[in-house]
Amino acid sequence: MAASKAGTSKAGTSKADEILDIAESLVRRNGYNGFSFREVASRAGIKSASVHYHFPAKSDLGVAVARRYTDRFMDGLGDPQASPDPLTAYVAAFRAGLTGDGQMCLCGVLGAESTALPAEVAAEAKRFCELNAAWLECALSARGLASGAQDASLRRQALLILSVLEGAMIVARNLGDLTVFDEIAAGLTEARYLRRA
Amino acid sequence: MAASKAGTSKAGTSKADEILDIAESLVRRNGYNGFSFREVASRAGIKSASVHYHFPAKSDLGVAVARRYTDRFMDGLGDPQASPDPLTAYVAAFRAGLTGDGQMCLCGVLGAESTALPAEVAAEAKRFCELNAAWLECALSARGLASGAQDASLRRQALLILSVLEGAMIVARNLGDLTVFDEIAAGLTEARYLRRA
DNA sequence: GTCTATAATTTGATAGAC
DNA sequence: GTCTATCAAATTATAGAC
What we know:
The structure is a homodimer. By secondary structure, chain A is mainly α. Chain A has two domains: about 15-60, Arc Repressor Mutant, subunit A (Orthogonal Bundle), CATH 1.10.10.60; about 65-195, Tetracycline Repressor, domain 2 (Orthogonal Bundle), CATH 1.10.357.10. Helix content of chain A is about 65%, strand content about 0%. The longest helix of chain A is centred in the middle third of the chain and has 25 residues, at about 120-145. The N and C termini of chain A lie far apart (about 50 Å). Residues about 1-10 of chain A have low confidence and may be disordered. The interface between A and B is large, with 53 and 53 residues. Chain A binds a DNA duplex (18 and 18 nucleotides) through helix 3.
């Protein structure tokens, strides 16, 4: 457990938050195994021992980054029942996270490293997927966009949408061209079978 | 450049091949940054200095693993024009690579670590995506499965299929349940818009 | 909260004997 | 081809001063 964020300061720009910002951007670029306390510290203008003050172990920092990422993402999505065009809204939200400076969805990075992750961190990545699948299921069913009424099909479609976006990010990264993501996302949005069947 | 495989022995079970096997399984589980020469050596029953004999630098080993992986995968796919149901065949080939012991598609792992990779290794991951997209394009067009005749749409669909599978693997891994991959893949295969439009 | 200092381990890599 | 020995650097983490 982190000693941070419990009895610290009041608002949004504490040192712990700055550390989280930096760590998040590093993990989303290079993976959990691709960032170090020293690099985070260096960018935050402090020493690595000070990072340990806020987050005792690396896994604590990893968990905190992932939790905050997921919460912020779900917050941005809002009420799944409220969106008139949930698929487009979801794609837009996902796309907004691809900053062009090499950052990809945290859940995608962690999923690829899954077996090399501390269990608590892997659990956070799982939580992201579960919440996103649930949001999509709810949104699709509320809008009657499912290609059937069966629950199994609903969940399958939700997972398919999530998979396309995570995968498109990976493929676009490999090809070194972010516009590939937009191309694929457009293909998803246009897919007829998600509108009627 | 590796000193290996050039003037070595004749056939398939040289020590270099054994090293490649071990390294591949480690990378596909834990990523490029998640394996070490020492771990490879330990599993091969030799010392890390001996691994360096076969592959001077870590990037050499990474490149060799990725090249072999891609070549083997494309080989298994065969002629794109020959398959009567290329989508099903492709999904099956992709699925065959998911061994259940935590190994995922090498290209997916590398894509997630992309910015933390030596350039030569990243280039191999790119090659995998390009060859796979080209195979799918060719197969779809040969079978008239594209939802239009335009080349742009063809490529888009090829990239979409690749993305779904890479993403499904990531999502399934995060959820800790490989059957999720099969569910999503089934959703892809059933998708009407890939059959007609 | 941040620092210095340091421990303990791991890592990629090389030199040179056999 | 494989070994021992070793290096230089990086890593996670802790102790204790300020």
